[in-house]
Amino acid sequence: MSLSFEGRVVLVTGAGGGLGREYALAFAERGASVIVNDLGADTKGGGKSSAAADKVVEEIRAKGGKAVANYDSVEDGEKLIQTALDAFGRIGVILRDRSFARTSDLDWDLIQRVHLRGSFLVTRAAWNHMKNQKFGRIIMTASAAGIYGNFGQANYSAAKLGLLGLANTLAIEGRKYNIHCNTIAPVAGSRLTETVMPPDLVASLKPEYVAPLVLWLCHEQCQENGGLFEVLRQKHILRWERTQGYIVRQKNQSMKPEAIRDHWEKICDFTDATKPANVQESLQSMVSVLSQVESQGDVGVNPAAAAASAGLGSGIDPTKAVGQKLPPTTFSFNHTQCILYALGVGMSTKDPDHLRFLYEGHPDFGCLPTFGVIPSQAAMMGGGLSSVPGLNIDFTQVLHGEQYLELYKPLPTSGKLTSEATIADVLDKGSGAVILLDVNTYSGNELVCYNQFSVFVVGAGGFGGKRSSEKAKPPVPPPKRSPDAVVIDSTTRDQAALYRLSGDWNPLHIDPSFAAMGGFKAPILHGLCSFGFAARHVLKQFADNDPSRFKAIKVRFVKPVMPGQSLQTEMWKEGNRVHIQCKVKETDAVVLAGAYVDLHGTSGASPENLSQGGGLQSELVFAEIGRRIKDAGSELVKKVNAVFGWEITKDGKKAAQWTIDLKSGSGSLHKGPYSGKVDVTMTVSDEDFMEVVQGKLNPQKAFFSGKLKVRGNIMLSQKLEVILKDYAKL
C-alpha cells in the first residue's frame, strides 16, 4: 500500500528551494498539511524575502494540497510552531534543512545559532505538543562535513555533528512517546551546491532522489529511530564501529606509552569490530575490562573475552540475578473479582453452563482456575524486576513468552493471598534474554498455586549464559493427528478493555497511540486473556466445567490477537493431558502453541474418593511422593540421580502413568505421558501396587510372579527406598 500522510502536519524549514522544497512538495502530494518555512536569505545567509516560501505554497495549492507559508528565523522556534497550530491545530513532523555554501565570512556564533541552536529552538517548541499526542517524527539534516570533517569548515562541521548528538538524544528521550528522530546527511544538487560542483554532477544529484527516504522515515509505520543516513541515489545507514582493542593496563602498575606503541596494530585492528549502539553498550565493555583488571591483573587481554567472563555483555549477570527473591505481594479479593475475570475471558450468561462462574448465588459458584495468574502478576506489574541485581534491562523490550500455572487446590472465591516470587533462571538466547520467574501463591501458610512467567527481553542476549534450563516448564507439541475437539469463540471489540480491569493495566491493550509505538495498528488483546479462553474451552469440553478437575496449564504465546477476532481452540486428549493449539479463525494464525492442560481424574485423588473406591488408590501414594519431592527434591536428586516411570493398570488396562524425575533440577513428579528419557519403568496393577506399599506383598515375589514388570535398569529400583522412607518395601 502507498504511504499516506493524510491528517499529518509537517513543518519543513528552509523549504523555499532545494531539498526543503522537494520535501514540502512530496509531503503535500501524499496528503500532509505543510508549513513552508523559509527566511528568504541568499546563499551567503544575508537578506530576507517571502518570495521563496510563497512560491512553494502556490505550487502545493495549485495541485490541490494544503500549505501555509512562514518567514520566521529558526531562532524564533515558538513562532514557527504557532503557525502550524494556528493553521492546522497540531504539529507532527519537523524537517530541519538549512546549509551555507560559503561559511568563511561568517563567525562561529552565527553558524551555531542558525544550525544547532535553531534546531533546538524549533524542536523544543514542538516537543510537548508531540508528547501530548504521542506521535512525532523529526529529521535533522547534518552533512558529510560534520561526519568526516572538511577543510576550512571547522565551525560548520562542529554544528552539523552537534545536530547528530542532539538527534540521538531526542531519539532516546522521545521513544516512549512515539517520537522518533533520525538524521540525514544528503548530497543533492541545489542553488547552494551548484557553485562548487560540476553541472553534470549537480544534474545527477537531484533533490527528488533524497525525498523518498525522508518521507519513509517520517511515516507512522516506520519504527527507525536514532539512525544516521547518507543519501545520494543510493541510501546508506551509518553506525559507529570500535576495534576489540587490547588491554595493556596491569593492576597497581602505571601504564607506559611504550606498551601502547608495542600493541598499536592490535589496538587499531578492526577485525571482529564491535558496533556499540548506545551509551550503555559503550560503557559495558569498559566496566568489564576494569573488573577484569581489578580481579586478575592480566596484561594483554582481549576486552570481548573480559566482557563475556564478567557477564556484562548486555547488562545481565545471571550469577547475581538467579535465586533473588522479589518483595512479597498481597492480593485481597471477593466474588466481584472472580466474576469480573470470568467476563474478561469471554464468559457470558448466554451459556447456562457459565452461570456457576458469573453468579455468586449459584449453588456451585466457583472461581475459574486460570484466575490463579491474577494474584501472582503483581510481581511482574509492580516493577519488582527492576530492583533485582544483575538485571539491568530495558523494560520497554520485555515480552511475555510463556506461562505455566499449576493449582494445588481449587481457588477460593474470596480472601487474601500472598505471592512470593523468585528469579528461577536467566537464559541467553542470543537475540535476547529469557527470565524465568517462579511465583508461589499462598492462602495463609497453605500453597494454593504456582506460576512460572517466562519473559523474553529483546536485544538483551549475548552475555555468555546458557541457552536452556531444567527449571523451565517446556511446551509440548500436539499429536500429529486431527484434533479430538474444536471450539470457536468470538472475542468482543471491548474484550481487552474488560480484561484489563482484572489488573493488567498495560496501555498497549487500550491506548491506540501506545500500541502504535509497539508497531501495532490498534491495541491488542492480552496474551493471558487468550490463555483464559483456551483453558475454559478445555474445562467445558473435558472436565464438565468442574474447577476441581483442573491441575495445570502451559502455553507459549506466539502472535497477538486483535479484540473482535475469533479464537479457535483445537484439542487432543491423551490420558489426563489435553494438548491445545489456539488460532485466530479469520487469519488461521497460531497464537498459542506447545500448550496443554493437565486434568485430575474424574474422582480426583482425595482420601474421600479413594475410600469410596471411585478412583485409583495409587493416586494418593503418588500425591505423597509429590509432596516429599517438593520438600526435599534437591537432596533426593543427589542421592538417587535417576528417572522412574510407573504404569498403573486396572482390569488389565493401563489406567495411569507417572514419572518420578530425580535426575534434573530439584526433582519433579509428572502425571501422564512423559517426553524425556526414563531409566527404569515398572508396570503393576493398582491393587498389587497398594499391596506392596502396605507391606502385604513382597516386591521380589511380585516381580518373579509376573505381577510387577520392570523394563530398563532394574538395579535402580532399589533406590526407591529413598523416596518413600515410610514404605521401604516399595
UniProtKB/TrEMBL annotation:
<feature type="region of interest" description="Disordered">
    <location>
        <begin position="465"/>
        <end position="484"/>
    </location>
</feature>
<dbReference type="GO" id="GO:0006635">
    <property type="term" value="P:fatty acid beta-oxidation"/>
</dbReference>
<dbReference type="InterPro" id="IPR002539">
    <property type="entry name" value="MaoC-like_dom"/>
</dbReference>
<dbReference type="GO" id="GO:0005777">
    <property type="term" value="C:peroxisome"/>
</dbReference>
<dbReference type="InterPro" id="IPR036527">
    <property type="entry name" value="SCP2_sterol-bd_dom_sf"/>
</dbReference>
<dbReference type="InterPro" id="IPR003033">
    <property type="entry name" value="SCP2_sterol-bd_dom"/>
</dbReference>
<keyword id="KW-0520">NAD</keyword>
<keyword id="KW-0276">Fatty acid metabolism</keyword>
<dbReference type="Pfam" id="PF00106">
    <property type="entry name" value="adh_short"/>
</dbReference>
<dbReference type="InterPro" id="IPR029069">
    <property type="entry name" value="HotDog_dom_sf"/>
</dbReference>
<keyword id="KW-0413">Isomerase</keyword>
<dbReference type="InterPro" id="IPR036291">
    <property type="entry name" value="NAD(P)-bd_dom_sf"/>
</dbReference>
<dbReference type="GO" id="GO:0016853">
    <property type="term" value="F:isomerase activity"/>
</dbReference>
<keyword id="KW-0456">Lyase</keyword>
<dbReference type="InterPro" id="IPR057326">
    <property type="entry name" value="KR_dom"/>
</dbReference>
<dbReference type="GO" id="GO:0016491">
    <property type="term" value="F:oxidoreductase activity"/>
</dbReference>
<dbReference type="GO" id="GO:0018812">
    <property type="term" value="F:3-hydroxyacyl-CoA dehydratase activity"/>
</dbReference>
<dbReference type="Pfam" id="PF01575">
    <property type="entry name" value="MaoC_dehydratas"/>
</dbReference>
<comment type="pathway">
    <text>Lipid metabolism; fatty acid beta-oxidation.</text>
</comment>
<keyword id="KW-0443">Lipid metabolism</keyword>
<dbReference type="GO" id="GO:0048666">
    <property type="term" value="P:neuron development"/>
</dbReference>
<comment type="similarity">
    <text>Belongs to the short-chain dehydrogenases/reductases (SDR) family.</text>
</comment>
<protein>
    <recommendedName>
        <fullName>Peroxisomal multifunctional enzyme type 2</fullName>
    </recommendedName>
</protein>
<dbReference type="InterPro" id="IPR054357">
    <property type="entry name" value="MFE-2_N"/>
</dbReference>
<dbReference type="Pfam" id="PF02036">
    <property type="entry name" value="SCP2"/>
</dbReference>
<dbReference type="Pfam" id="PF22622">
    <property type="entry name" value="MFE-2_hydrat-2_N"/>
</dbReference>
<dbReference type="InterPro" id="IPR020904">
    <property type="entry name" value="Sc_DH/Rdtase_CS"/>
</dbReference>
<feature type="domain" description="Ketoreductase">
    <location>
        <begin position="8"/>
        <end position="176"/>
    </location>
</feature>
<dbReference type="InterPro" id="IPR051687">
    <property type="entry name" value="Peroxisomal_Beta-Oxidation"/>
</dbReference>
<keyword id="KW-0560">Oxidoreductase</keyword>
<dbReference type="GO" id="GO:0048568">
    <property type="term" value="P:embryonic organ development"/>
</dbReference>
<keyword id="KW-0576">Peroxisome</keyword>
<dbReference type="InterPro" id="IPR002347">
    <property type="entry name" value="SDR_fam"/>
</dbReference>
